[in-house]
């Protein structure tokens, strides 16, 4: 199988890999680069577990070809915490019992981050819409929605 | 959180240190940073990918299997068929005396449900495994399928599973699990009203976000390390040891965080064949269900059919309850004989009824084998019972919540299966529900207690 070079930044770090043509970003991140924070739940774009942020936009890494990410800036939950300090979203998810099995959590946090990056003070409806592509089968949606709202308030407090 | 301390206050000390206080989950830091390790969060050099060839038919005889094209496909390391499996016919609960063994790891002469595994392909990449699987040619003689409980129990129905000889599981007590308490016919004879209703449910898929799977690594010590998301580590160890005729000491099962289970990861399906693949190739093997397999192949909750007949008095007392329960096991037993038994033990629900009769059947059909899911054998029964309770209340023009107070079980009541009731809290829960839902009931019900009956 032909391999193609791909180069991008992952959570601010330069990455360069040779990947099989046609391989998804999900597989490249997990199998080549070893970022296991990105989860594959359906491999068909329906569950949101593999959500990442590419150049500021929320994307499904299972439907994104790795070779299409040349030059991109990719963010994952694995790179969200600063050394010794959780991101406000991570704090809010942990404090608010917004995790159960934990499998959907990294994707949920990416969806939430994409929302807060463009809308720091979302309404409840904005939050519901933002995570509408992410399935939590432990059905913990209410604590997740609340955690995202809590994180947005924590964010605005820290700015003020 | 509000603690209602008036309930059972004479039964406990109120020096609570933990209850009522939030405690952080021990796993939440891993979850929010994406560092929690699920079974698939590891890579191994030389990893093989296992892909099953599955039956496209509900019921068919296998005339022949042609592997010649698949074997030649680039990237294929090994193809497994039934003859490679040391103990190919098994049943999960054999160690708790559920038998006979009735399910093949890989099908031999027959397939009994659409999706049944026949041939396992081991290849260097998922793609090669998929492509090779498509090149396996299976010659089928399609048979009439049995696709419902009613059809399975017709006298001339095709036999689904020859290991049983009839389309239901035979218990030591006969064709069904039975509960007999009091005299149900006498109860009906003395009742003011009789209500008989039939309730049916469809199979339900758990649909966890993380699909079922395992990764197996052959170790230099001759052992096999199996990273799995099973919910049933010891069923997996026992059954793998039986199926592979391998000493359990050679099997190192590593479980851990399960990405949603809900009972759907209790069967022993992926591990034995993946370990066999690792043994025969000497290479690590990954067998992970696709989303399609998770939805179509993994066991759902059983379909059920429940016939409930009650005798009720005008004052609200239920004096007799007869239940005929049918649990659709699909093609193989898995956990369903146990589920049907649980179902029998659960009736007549959380109510004290003097005359009870229950017949609970585990039925075989050419459908996806069903298995555990959140209170299996009980949950659908509770749905049916509570709908029946509402109908009974309407029949005698009584408030449905007050009707449940009249019949609620209390400490010391003997249940239909002869166990005395201990630690009942139904009345207290209903009192709280009455307040929370703003559904008032008469004072006499608010004064009731699970601990004692009124004088």
Give an account of the 3D structure.
The complex is a heterodimer of chains A (160) and B (455). Chain A has 160 residues and is an alpha+beta fold. Chain A has helices spanning 25-33, 88-95, 105-118, 124-130, 141-159, and strands at residues 3-10, 13-20, 51-54, 57-60, 73-75. In chain A, strand 3 (51-54) and strand 4 form a beta hairpin. Chain B has 455 residues and is of the alpha+beta class. The mean pLDDT of chain B is 96. In chain B, helix 9 links the parallel strand 16 and strand 17 (356-364). Chain B is globular, with a radius of gyration of 26 Å. Helices cover 24% and strands 22% of the residues of chain B. Chain B has helices spanning 28-33, 68-72, 126-133, 149-152, 184-189, 233-244, 270-281, 291-296, 336-346, 379-395, 400-407, 426-436, 443-446; strands at 48-54, 60-66, 76-80, 89-90, 103-104, 110-111, 117-123, 137-142, 177-181, 193-201, 213-218, 224-228, 251-254, 285-288, 304-312, 318-330, 356-364. Chain A: This is (2Fe-2S)-binding protein. Chain A: InterPro entries: 2Fe-2S-bd, 2Fe-2S-bd_dom_sf, 2Fe-2S_ferredoxin-like_sf, 2Fe-2S_ferredoxin-type, 2Fe2S_fd_BS, Beta-grasp_dom_sf, Diverse_Oxidoreductases. Chain A: Keywords: 2Fe-2S, Iron, Iron-sulfur, Metal-binding, Oxidoreductase.
Topology:
The complex is a heterodimer of chains A (160) and B (455).
Chain A: E1 3-10, E2 13-20, H1 25-33, E3 51-54, E4 57-60, E5 73-75, H2 88-95, H3 105-118, H4 124-130, H5 141-159
Helix pairs in contact in A: 2-5
Chain B: H1 28-33, E1 48-54, E2 60-66, H2 68-72, E3 76-80, E4 89-90, E5 103-104, E6 110-111, E7 117-123, H3 126-133, E8 137-142, H4 149-152, E9 177-181, H5 184-189, E10 193-201, E11 213-218, E12 224-228, H6 233-244, E13 251-254, H7 270-281, E14 285-288, H8 291-296, E15 304-312, E16 318-330, H9 336-346, E17 356-364, H10 379-395, H11 400-407, H12 426-436, H13 443-446
Parallel strand pairs in B: 1-14, 12-13, 16-17
Antiparallel strand pairs in B: 1-7, 2-6, 2-8, 3-7, 4-5, 9-17, 10-15, 11-12, 11-14, 15-16
């Amino acid at each position: 199988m032909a391999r193609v070079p791909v180069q991008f930044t992952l959570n601010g770090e330069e990455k360069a890999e040779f990947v099989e043509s046609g391989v998804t970003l999900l597989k490249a991140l997990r199998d080549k680069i070893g970022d296991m924070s990105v989860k594959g739940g359906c491999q068909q774009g329906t569950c949101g577990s593999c959500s990442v942020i590419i150049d500021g936009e929320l994307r499904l890494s299972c439907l994104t070809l790795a070779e299409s990410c040349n030059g991109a800036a990719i963010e994952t939950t694995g790179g969200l915490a600063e050394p010794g300090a959780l991101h406000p979203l991570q704090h809010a998810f942990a404090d608010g019992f917004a995790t159960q099995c934990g499998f959907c959590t990294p994707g949920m946090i990416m969806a939430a981050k994409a929302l807060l990056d463009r809308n720091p003070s979302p309404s409840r409806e904005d939050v519901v819409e933002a995570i509408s592509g992410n399935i939590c089968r432990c059905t913990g949606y209410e604590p997740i929605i609340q955690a995202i709202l809590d994180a947005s308030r924590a964010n605005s407090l820290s700015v003020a | 959180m509000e603690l209602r301390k008036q309930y059972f206050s004479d039964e406990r000390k109120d020096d609570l240190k933990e209850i009522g206080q939030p405690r952080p989950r021990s796993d939440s830091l891993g979850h929010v940073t994406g560092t929690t390790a699920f079974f698939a969060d590891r890579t191994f050099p030389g990893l093989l990918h296992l892909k099953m060839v599955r039956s496209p038919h509900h019921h068919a005889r296998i005339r022949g299997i042609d592997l010649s094209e698949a074997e030649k496909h680039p990237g294929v390391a090994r193809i497994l068929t039934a003859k490679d499996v040391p103990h190919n016919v098994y049943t999960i609960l054999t160690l708790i005396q559920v038998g006979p063994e009735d399910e093949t790891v890989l099908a031999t002469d027959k397939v009994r449900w659409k999706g049944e595994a026949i041939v396992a392909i081991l290849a260097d990449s998922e793609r090669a495994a998929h492509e090779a699987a498509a090149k396996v040619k299976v010659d089928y003689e399609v048979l009439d399928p049995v696709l419902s409980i009613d059809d399975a129990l017709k006298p001339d129905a095709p036999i689904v599973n020859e290991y049983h000889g009839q389309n239901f599981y035979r218990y030591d007590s006969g064709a069904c699990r039975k509960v007999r308490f009091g005299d149900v016919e006498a109860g009906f004879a003395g009742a003011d009203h009789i209500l008989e209703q039939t309730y049916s449910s469809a199979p339900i898929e758990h649909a966890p976000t993380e699909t079922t799977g395992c990764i197996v690594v052959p170790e230099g010590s001759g052992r096999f390390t199996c990273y799995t998301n099973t919910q049933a580590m010891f069923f997996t160890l026992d059954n793998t040891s039986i199926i592979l005729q391998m000493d359990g000491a050679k099997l190192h099962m590593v479980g851990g965080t399960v990405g949603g289970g809900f009972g759907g990861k209790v069967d022993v399906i992926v591990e034995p064949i993946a370990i066999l693949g690792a043994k025969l190739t000497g290479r690590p093997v990954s067998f992970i269900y696709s989303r399609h397999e998770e939805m179509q192949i993994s066991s759902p909750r059983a379909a059920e059919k429940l016939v409930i007949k009650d005798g009720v008095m005008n004052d609200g007392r239920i004096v007799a309850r007869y239940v005929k329960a049918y649990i659709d096991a699909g093609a193989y037993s898995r956990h369903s004989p146990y589920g049907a038994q649980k179902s029998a033990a659960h009736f007549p629900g959380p109510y004290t009824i003097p005359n009870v009769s229950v017949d609970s059947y585990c039925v075989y059909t050419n459908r996806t084998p069903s298995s555990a899911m959140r209170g299996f054998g009980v949950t659908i029964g509770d749905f049916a019972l509570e709908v029946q309770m509402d109908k009974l209340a309407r029949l005698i023009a009584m408030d449905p919540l007050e009707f449940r107070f009249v019949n609620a079980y209390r400490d010391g009541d003997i249940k239909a299966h002869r166990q005395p009731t201990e630690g009942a809290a139904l009345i207290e829960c209903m009192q709280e529900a009455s307040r929370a839902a703003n559904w008032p009931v008469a004072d006499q019900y608010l004064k009731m207690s699970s601990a004692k009956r009124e004088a």
